[in-house]
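Lab notebook, bench 4. We co-purified these components, and the gel suggests they stay together. Before we commit to crystallization screens, I want a quick structural picture of the whole thing.
Request: model the full complex, all chains together.
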Amino acid sequence: MTMDKQTSVFEYAPAPESRSVVDIAPSYGLFIDGEFTDAADGKVFKTVSPSTEEVLSEVAQAGEADVERAVQAARKAFAKWSALPGAERGKYLFRIARIIQERSRELAVLETLDNGKPIKETRDADLPLVAAHFFYYAGWADKLGHAGFGPAPKALGVAGQVIPWNFPLLMLAWKIAPALATGNTVVLKPAETTPLSALFFADICRQAGLPKGVVNILPGYGDAGAALVAHPDVNKVAFTGSTAVGKQIARTVAGTDKKLTLELGGKGANIVFDDAPIDQAVEGIVTGIFFNQGQVCCAGSRLLVQESVQDEVLDRLKSRLSTLRLGDPLDKNTDIGAINSAEQLARITALAETGEAEGAERWSAPCELPSSGYWFAPTLFTNVTQAHTVARDEIFGPVLSVLTFRTPEEAVAKANNTQYGLSAGIWTEKGSRILAVANRLRAGVVWANTFNKFDPTSPFGGYKESGFGREGGRHGLEAYLDV
Amino acid sequence: MSEKSEQQRLSVFKTYKLYVGGKFPRSESGRVYAVQDSKGKWLANAPLSSRKDGRDAVVAARKAFGGWSGATAYNRGQVLYRVAEMLEGRRDQFVREVAEAEGLSRSKAAAVVDAAIDRWVWYAGWTDKIGQVVGGANPVAGPFLNLSTPEPTGVVAVIAPQESSFLGLVSVIAPVIATGSTVVVIAGEASPLPALSLGEVLATSDVPGGVVNVLSGKASEIAPSLAAHQDVNGIDLTGADPALAKELEIAAADNLKRVRRPQPVEDFTADPGTDRLTYFLETKTVWHPTGSLGASGSSY
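Here is the predicted assembly.
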C-alpha cells in the first residue's frame, strides 16, 4: 500500500522540544491578593502529564474559604483598578502581552506538558493567540467610550471565571483580557487537570506589576467553581465548558443581578459539496476534528459530505489520517497528542463503543499507541444517521461522524439539526453557495473553505445551547460592561 | 343624528379575542375573565389563555420565523411603518382603550398613544440600520475576510409590562420583531384590551400571521410553560414580578434561552436606545479566505 511506502521513505527521527526552558516547581499555591498561598484547609492535588502520567507538580486545591478570600481580594482591588485611567490599565495589559511573548516558548512547553497537546499547536496556535488577545484588549482599555456602548460604559465589578482544560492559557486570555481592559477584577478557576499555565500567568502578573487582587487564580475542582459562581459578591460570571454545567450555572444565577456569558458545547457540521477542492477539504476536515485531539468545542465533528463525492473524500481522508503522527506531544513532528485525562479518555471510549453498538461503522487510523498515558487513535464513523449518539452528542475527542446529503437544502437541514450552534464549515468553489449556506446555518462561527481559525478581533460564541454572549472583538467587551 | 336617537341606539360590544397565527381564536379552554377599568367598571370579557394556547402560539411563531427573518430588512421596515400608519387611523380607539385601562385623562392617554405610534416609527427605521451598527468586518491577522452579522434569535416569549398597557407593550414587541425574531406576548393581566386590539391592527398591516401572537390571561399560568418550552429561544421577563421572574429564568436554563431580566424601573417614555433592539440578536461570524493575490509584493 502506498502508505507503507510513504512511512518507510519518510522516516522521521525524534525531534523533541527541550523541556529545559520550563522550570516546574514541585508545588504551587493559590494566587490570592498578589501572593501564592496554601488552601485554607491545606488540600492539594496532583497534576499529571497526560502523555506519560508523570506527576508534574502538586497544586493547592481551592475550597469555599479560599473562594471567599479571593472574591474579597478582588472586591478590595476593584475600586482602584476600575478608577484607573483606561490608558494606565491598557499599559498593564500591554506589559502582560509582551511578557507572554517573551516567555512564549516556556509557556508552550509547559502547556504541552500539562495538557498533552502537540508542541506545534501550543507554539504556533495557543501562545501567539494568547499574546495577541492581551495586546488587542489592551488597546481597548482607553477607548471604551467609542465602542458603541454609550459614552462612559462602566465595569461590572468582580468577575468569576471558570475555564476548561482544552486551551488552558488561551481560555484564560479570552476571559481575563477583556475583563481587565474594561476595569473589572478577576477570580479565575482553571480546570483541575491543567492548572499550571494559569499559575505561571499569575507570576507574569507579578512581573508586570499588576496591582494586588486584580487577578486571583484558584486551582480546584467543580466545587470551587460552583462556590465562585454562587458567591453573592460576584457581579459577572463567565464560563467555558460543558452545556450541562452551563445550564446549572444559568440556574444558579437566576434571579440575581449577575451578568452571565456561556461558551459551551458544540457538534459542528463540516459540509463538503461535490465541487469542493477535495485535497483542501480533506485538510480542513482533519484540522476541524483532529486539531487538539478533537477536544475543541467548535470542532467539525460531523462531516456532511455530498453523496456523489463521498467515496473519494473518505478514501483520501483515510489515507491522510494514516499519515498523522501520534505520540510524544513535545516532538515537533507530532500531529496528535494525548487525550487530556483518563476520565476524558474513558468518555471518548464509551461514546465510540456506543457508536459501534448502535450500528455505525468504525474505522481508526492504523497507529501504535504509547504504552503509558492517555491515547485515542483518530477515528471516524460511517453509516451514521442523525439519530445515532455519535451524530448528536459532543464527544470532545478525535472522533468524526460522517453523514451524507444530496442537496444544499438537505445539508442545511442536517447541519442545523442539533441542540448546539457553535460552528460550521462549508467547502465549495461556488461563492454564492457559500453565502447562501452560511446565511442559513444557525451557528455563531462559520468557516468557508477553512476551519478552526481564531483571532482576537473576531467574535466567538454560539447559538442555541452552545451558550450566549461573544468573546473577542468589540462584541467581547459587552460581557464585562454595565450595558 | 339627533340626541334622542343616539340615546336609544344600543352600542355594539366587541368580543375581544386572542391573536395567534394571524387568526383571532378564543382561548381553547373556553375561559374568559372580566376586565375592568381603573374604577372597577366592567369593560369586556377577555380570553383567559391556557398553557395550550401558549403552545399553539409558539407553533405559529416558529412557523412564521423563517419567512420573517428571511425577509429583507427594508421589507420589515416597511411593514413596521405600515403598523404605525394603521395605528394612526385607529388612534381614537386606542386613546379610549388606554384611558380606560390606565385611568388616564383623554389628553394623557392621547399622549401615550402618540408616543406608541412614534415608537413603531422609530423601530421601523432601525430594521435596515442595526446590522451596520452592531456588525461589520473584523480586521483579523491573516488572509481572510471576516464578517460579523447580527441575526435574530428565533421565537421570543415576552411578558409585557403590567402597568403600561400600550406604550409599554409596543416598546417590548417592536424591537424584537424589528430584528427578525417572532413573538409570543402575554399582555398585562389587568389591562389586556389595547394589546388584543393591537392584534387587529397587525392583522391589517402586512405583518405575516404568526410574527406576533397576543395572549391575554395570567402570566403566572402561561409563562412557565413558555419558559420551559424547548422551541422558544428567548424570553423577556419585563412584566414578571421578581418571584415569577426567578422561577422563569430557572426554567429557561433548560435550553439556555436568552433571558432579559426585569428592570427595577422602566420608563417607557424615555429614549429607548438600542438595548432592546440588540438583546435578542445573535452574532454570526463568517470567515472567507481571500487568497494571497499580491503576496509577491507588488504595490498595484
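The mean pLDDT of chain B is 95. Worth comparing against the SEC data before the next meeting. The first helix of chain B runs from residue 3 to 8.
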